[in-house]
Amino acid sequence: MNKKRVLLVHFSQTGQLARVARTLTAPLAQAHDVELVEEVLRPHQPYPFPWPAWRFLDAMPESVLLDPPQLEPLTVPANAQFDLVVLAYQVWFLAPAGPIVAFLKSEAGRALVRGRPVITVVACRNLWLMAHETMKRLVAEAGGELRDNVVLTDQSGTLASFITTPRWLLTGKRDAFWGLPTAGVADAAIAATDRFGNALVAALRAGRERAPGALLAGLGAAKVDPNLVFSERAGSRAFRAWSRIIRLGGGPRGIGRLPLLALFCVYLVVMIIVVVPPSLLLQRLLRPFFRRGLQSET
After folding, report:
1. Across the chain, where does the E strand assignment appear?
2. Of 14, 121, 247, 259, which sits 20 to 30 A from 223 (CA to CA)?
Protein backbone atom coordinates (compact mmCIF):
# COMPACT_ATOMS: atom_id res chain seq x y z
CA MET A 1 0.00 0.00 0.00
CA ASN A 2 1.33 3.42 -0.95
CA LYS A 3 1.57 5.79 1.97
CA LYS A 4 -0.21 9.12 1.88
CA ARG A 5 2.32 11.94 2.20
CA VAL A 6 1.60 15.06 4.25
CA LEU A 7 3.77 18.18 4.40
CA LEU A 8 3.73 20.25 7.60
CA VAL A 9 5.12 23.78 7.21
CA HIS A 10 5.50 26.13 10.17
CA PHE A 11 7.47 28.91 11.83
CA SER A 12 7.15 29.55 15.56
CA GLN A 13 8.83 32.42 17.35
CA THR A 14 7.77 31.55 20.90
CA GLY A 15 7.56 27.79 20.40
CA GLN A 16 3.81 27.70 21.01
CA LEU A 17 2.82 27.22 17.38
CA ALA A 18 5.38 24.44 16.98
CA ARG A 19 3.70 22.62 19.89
CA VAL A 20 0.30 23.11 18.30
CA ALA A 21 1.45 21.95 14.87
CA ARG A 22 3.22 18.85 16.20
CA THR A 23 0.39 17.90 18.53
CA LEU A 24 -2.19 18.27 15.78
CA THR A 25 -0.16 16.18 13.34
CA ALA A 26 0.96 13.56 15.88
CA PRO A 27 -1.73 11.07 14.72
CA LEU A 28 -0.43 11.50 11.17
CA ALA A 29 3.16 10.86 12.29
CA GLN A 30 2.05 7.72 14.16
CA ALA A 31 -0.12 6.29 11.36
CA HIS A 32 1.53 3.35 9.58
CA ASP A 33 0.06 4.40 6.24
CA VAL A 34 0.94 8.11 6.38
CA GLU A 35 4.32 9.77 5.93
CA LEU A 36 4.60 13.16 7.63
CA VAL A 37 7.35 15.51 6.42
CA GLU A 38 8.08 18.62 8.50
CA GLU A 39 9.49 21.86 7.09
CA VAL A 40 10.48 24.48 9.68
CA LEU A 41 10.83 27.87 8.01
CA ARG A 42 14.09 29.67 8.76
CA PRO A 43 14.31 33.42 8.12
CA HIS A 44 17.69 34.49 6.77
CA GLN A 45 17.81 37.11 9.54
CA PRO A 46 16.29 35.38 12.58
CA TYR A 47 13.62 37.17 14.57
CA PRO A 48 14.63 37.64 18.21
CA PHE A 49 12.59 36.36 21.13
CA PRO A 50 11.83 38.06 23.36
CA TRP A 51 11.38 40.91 20.92
CA PRO A 52 12.93 44.29 21.74
CA ALA A 53 10.06 46.80 21.62
CA TRP A 54 11.40 48.72 18.63
CA ARG A 55 12.11 45.56 16.64
CA PHE A 56 8.55 44.44 17.35
CA LEU A 57 7.04 47.71 16.10
CA ASP A 58 9.46 47.88 13.18
CA ALA A 59 8.15 44.53 11.88
CA MET A 60 4.67 45.99 11.41
CA PRO A 61 4.91 47.68 7.96
CA GLU A 62 6.41 44.71 6.15
CA SER A 63 4.02 42.28 7.88
CA VAL A 64 0.92 44.27 6.97
CA LEU A 65 2.04 45.06 3.42
CA LEU A 66 3.03 41.40 2.82
CA ASP A 67 6.63 42.27 2.07
CA PRO A 68 8.14 39.07 3.47
CA PRO A 69 11.63 38.33 4.78
CA GLN A 70 14.15 36.23 2.92
CA LEU A 71 14.11 32.57 3.91
CA GLU A 72 16.92 30.06 4.03
CA PRO A 73 16.51 27.38 1.34
CA LEU A 74 13.86 24.78 2.13
CA THR A 75 14.97 21.31 3.13
CA VAL A 76 12.12 19.71 1.16
CA PRO A 77 12.70 19.53 -2.62
CA ALA A 78 10.35 21.78 -4.58
CA ASN A 79 9.33 18.86 -6.80
CA ALA A 80 8.31 16.61 -3.89
CA GLN A 81 4.78 15.26 -4.13
CA PHE A 82 2.29 15.41 -1.25
CA ASP A 83 -1.35 14.46 -0.78
CA LEU A 84 -1.99 17.21 1.78
CA VAL A 85 -0.22 20.36 2.98
CA VAL A 86 -0.65 21.74 6.51
CA LEU A 87 0.40 25.38 6.93
CA ALA A 88 0.73 26.55 10.55
CA TYR A 89 1.26 30.27 11.04
CA GLN A 90 1.26 33.11 13.54
CA VAL A 91 -0.64 36.39 13.18
CA TRP A 92 1.42 39.57 13.26
CA PHE A 93 -0.46 42.89 13.24
CA LEU A 94 -3.62 41.22 11.89
CA ALA A 95 -1.67 39.66 8.99
CA PRO A 96 0.00 36.29 8.46
CA ALA A 97 3.52 36.29 9.88
CA GLY A 98 6.26 37.14 7.42
CA PRO A 99 7.87 33.67 7.13
CA ILE A 100 4.67 31.93 6.00
CA VAL A 101 4.02 34.74 3.50
CA ALA A 102 7.57 34.29 2.22
CA PHE A 103 6.94 30.56 1.77
CA LEU A 104 3.72 31.10 -0.20
CA LYS A 105 5.34 33.76 -2.40
CA SER A 106 8.48 31.74 -3.14
CA GLU A 107 8.83 29.58 -6.21
CA ALA A 108 9.63 26.53 -4.11
CA GLY A 109 6.69 27.11 -1.76
CA ARG A 110 4.27 27.61 -4.63
CA ALA A 111 5.50 24.43 -6.29
CA LEU A 112 4.84 22.44 -3.10
CA VAL A 113 1.34 23.89 -2.66
CA ARG A 114 0.23 23.95 -6.30
CA GLY A 115 -2.62 21.54 -7.01
CA ARG A 116 -2.80 20.26 -3.45
CA PRO A 117 -5.39 20.46 -0.67
CA VAL A 118 -4.29 22.74 2.15
CA ILE A 119 -5.19 22.95 5.83
CA THR A 120 -4.22 26.12 7.71
CA VAL A 121 -3.56 26.22 11.44
CA VAL A 122 -3.28 29.42 13.47
CA ALA A 123 -2.52 30.07 17.13
CA CYS A 124 -2.88 33.70 18.14
CA ARG A 125 -4.21 36.16 20.72
CA ASN A 126 -7.75 36.31 19.34
CA LEU A 127 -7.77 38.37 16.13
CA TRP A 128 -7.28 36.03 13.18
CA LEU A 129 -10.00 36.68 10.62
CA MET A 130 -8.19 39.27 8.48
CA ALA A 131 -5.08 37.09 8.43
CA HIS A 132 -7.23 34.14 7.36
CA GLU A 133 -8.69 36.13 4.47
CA THR A 134 -5.15 36.97 3.37
CA MET A 135 -4.08 33.34 3.65
CA LYS A 136 -7.02 32.21 1.53
CA ARG A 137 -5.86 34.58 -1.21
CA LEU A 138 -2.19 33.58 -0.94
CA VAL A 139 -3.00 29.86 -1.04
CA ALA A 140 -5.25 30.39 -4.08
CA GLU A 141 -2.55 32.45 -5.84
CA ALA A 142 -0.09 29.62 -5.17
CA GLY A 143 -2.49 27.19 -6.84
CA GLY A 144 -3.54 25.36 -3.67
CA GLU A 145 -7.04 24.55 -2.49
CA LEU A 146 -7.83 25.61 1.07
CA ARG A 147 -9.92 22.85 2.58
CA ASP A 148 -10.13 23.83 6.26
CA ASN A 149 -8.82 26.17 8.94
CA VAL A 150 -7.98 25.37 12.58
CA VAL A 151 -7.86 28.29 15.03
CA LEU A 152 -6.61 28.29 18.61
CA THR A 153 -6.80 31.52 20.57
CA ASP A 154 -5.41 32.92 23.80
CA GLN A 155 -7.03 31.68 27.00
CA SER A 156 -7.15 35.24 28.37
CA GLY A 157 -10.08 37.53 27.65
CA THR A 158 -9.75 40.26 25.06
CA LEU A 159 -8.82 43.00 27.51
CA ALA A 160 -6.52 40.86 29.67
CA SER A 161 -4.56 39.68 26.62
CA PHE A 162 -3.78 43.29 25.74
CA ILE A 163 -1.44 43.04 28.75
CA THR A 164 -0.42 39.39 28.92
CA THR A 165 0.49 38.94 25.24
CA PRO A 166 2.79 42.00 24.87
CA ARG A 167 4.43 41.05 28.19
CA TRP A 168 5.15 37.58 26.81
CA LEU A 169 6.50 38.84 23.48
CA LEU A 170 8.64 41.62 24.95
CA THR A 171 9.96 39.90 28.09
CA GLY A 172 9.52 36.17 27.48
CA LYS A 173 7.35 35.88 30.62
CA ARG A 174 3.97 34.23 30.14
CA ASP A 175 3.12 33.21 33.72
CA ALA A 176 0.00 34.43 35.52
CA PHE A 177 0.43 37.69 37.44
CA TRP A 178 -1.70 40.38 39.10
CA GLY A 179 -4.74 38.13 38.83
CA LEU A 180 -4.31 37.80 35.05
CA PRO A 181 -4.11 34.33 33.48
CA THR A 182 -1.15 32.75 31.73
CA ALA A 183 -0.54 34.18 28.28
CA GLY A 184 -1.09 32.07 25.19
CA VAL A 185 -3.23 29.11 24.23
CA ALA A 186 -4.20 26.83 27.13
CA ASP A 187 -2.30 23.54 27.39
CA ALA A 188 -5.58 21.61 27.36
CA ALA A 189 -6.62 23.27 24.11
CA ILE A 190 -3.30 22.35 22.51
CA ALA A 191 -3.55 18.76 23.70
CA ALA A 192 -7.05 18.51 22.23
CA THR A 193 -5.86 19.36 18.71
CA ASP A 194 -4.96 15.72 18.12
CA ARG A 195 -8.65 15.21 17.29
CA PHE A 196 -8.01 17.16 14.07
CA GLY A 197 -5.08 14.90 13.28
CA ASN A 198 -7.22 11.82 13.82
CA ALA A 199 -9.84 13.28 11.47
CA LEU A 200 -7.19 13.93 8.83
CA VAL A 201 -5.92 10.35 9.07
CA ALA A 202 -9.47 9.08 8.53
CA ALA A 203 -9.97 11.48 5.61
CA LEU A 204 -6.74 10.40 3.92
CA ARG A 205 -7.58 6.72 4.32
CA ALA A 206 -10.95 7.36 2.69
CA GLY A 207 -9.40 9.43 -0.09
CA ARG A 208 -11.49 12.46 0.82
CA GLU A 209 -8.57 14.83 0.24
CA ARG A 210 -9.21 14.29 -3.49
CA ALA A 211 -12.86 15.34 -3.27
CA PRO A 212 -14.31 18.80 -2.63
CA GLY A 213 -15.46 19.82 0.83
CA ALA A 214 -14.17 20.41 4.33
CA LEU A 215 -11.98 17.76 5.93
CA LEU A 216 -12.70 18.79 9.53
CA ALA A 217 -16.44 19.44 9.40
CA GLY A 218 -18.26 19.25 12.71
CA LEU A 219 -15.15 19.50 14.89
CA GLY A 220 -15.41 23.20 15.73
CA ALA A 221 -12.09 23.96 14.07
CA ALA A 222 -12.66 27.72 13.80
CA LYS A 223 -15.15 30.00 15.48
CA VAL A 224 -15.67 33.69 14.66
CA ASP A 225 -16.24 35.98 17.63
CA PRO A 226 -18.81 38.54 16.42
CA ASN A 227 -17.69 40.99 19.11
CA LEU A 228 -14.28 41.34 17.45
CA VAL A 229 -15.02 41.41 13.72
CA PHE A 230 -15.59 45.13 13.28
CA SER A 231 -12.66 46.02 15.54
CA GLU A 232 -10.44 43.75 13.50
CA ARG A 233 -11.52 45.28 10.21
CA ALA A 234 -10.99 48.79 11.53
CA GLY A 235 -7.61 47.81 12.96
CA SER A 236 -6.55 46.27 9.66
CA ARG A 237 -7.35 49.48 7.80
CA ALA A 238 -5.46 51.53 10.38
CA PHE A 239 -2.41 49.26 10.24
CA ARG A 240 -2.29 49.52 6.45
CA ALA A 241 -2.37 53.32 6.64
CA TRP A 242 0.34 53.43 9.32
CA SER A 243 2.46 50.93 7.38
CA ARG A 244 2.58 53.22 4.37
CA ILE A 245 3.39 56.22 6.57
CA ILE A 246 6.22 54.43 8.40
CA ARG A 247 7.70 53.19 5.14
CA LEU A 248 8.22 56.83 4.17
CA GLY A 249 10.98 56.81 6.79
CA GLY A 250 12.93 54.10 4.99
CA GLY A 251 13.40 50.36 5.13
CA PRO A 252 13.39 47.98 8.09
CA ARG A 253 15.50 49.07 11.08
CA GLY A 254 16.27 52.41 9.42
CA ILE A 255 16.84 55.37 11.70
CA GLY A 256 14.39 57.46 9.69
CA ARG A 257 11.58 55.25 10.95
CA LEU A 258 12.12 55.97 14.63
CA PRO A 259 9.98 59.14 14.93
CA LEU A 260 7.18 57.52 12.95
CA LEU A 261 7.36 54.36 15.03
CA ALA A 262 7.15 56.50 18.17
CA LEU A 263 3.96 58.10 16.86
CA PHE A 264 2.58 54.67 16.00
CA CYS A 265 3.36 53.49 19.54
CA VAL A 266 1.42 56.43 21.01
CA TYR A 267 -1.47 55.64 18.66
CA LEU A 268 -1.55 52.01 19.86
CA VAL A 269 -1.59 52.98 23.53
CA VAL A 270 -4.39 55.51 23.02
CA MET A 271 -6.45 53.01 21.02
CA ILE A 272 -6.06 50.28 23.64
CA ILE A 273 -6.90 52.51 26.60
CA VAL A 274 -9.47 54.91 25.17
CA VAL A 275 -11.12 53.34 22.13
CA VAL A 276 -11.11 49.55 22.50
CA PRO A 277 -13.17 49.11 25.73
CA PRO A 278 -16.20 51.20 24.65
CA SER A 279 -15.97 49.73 21.15
CA LEU A 280 -16.20 46.18 22.49
CA LEU A 281 -19.17 47.14 24.67
CA LEU A 282 -21.00 48.71 21.73
CA GLN A 283 -20.38 45.69 19.53
CA ARG A 284 -21.67 43.36 22.23
CA LEU A 285 -24.90 45.37 22.38
CA LEU A 286 -25.27 45.30 18.59
CA ARG A 287 -24.30 41.64 18.22
CA PRO A 288 -27.84 40.31 17.60
CA PHE A 289 -28.28 42.69 14.67
CA PHE A 290 -25.27 41.56 12.63
CA ARG A 291 -24.92 37.90 13.64
CA ARG A 292 -26.28 36.60 10.34
CA GLY A 293 -23.77 38.54 8.30
CA LEU A 294 -20.90 36.74 10.00
CA GLN A 295 -21.89 33.19 9.15
CA SER A 296 -19.86 33.18 5.92
CA GLU A 297 -16.66 34.58 7.44
CA THR A 298 -14.96 31.23 8.13
Report:
1. 4-10, 34-40, 84-89, 91-92, 95-96, 117-124, 145-153
2. 14
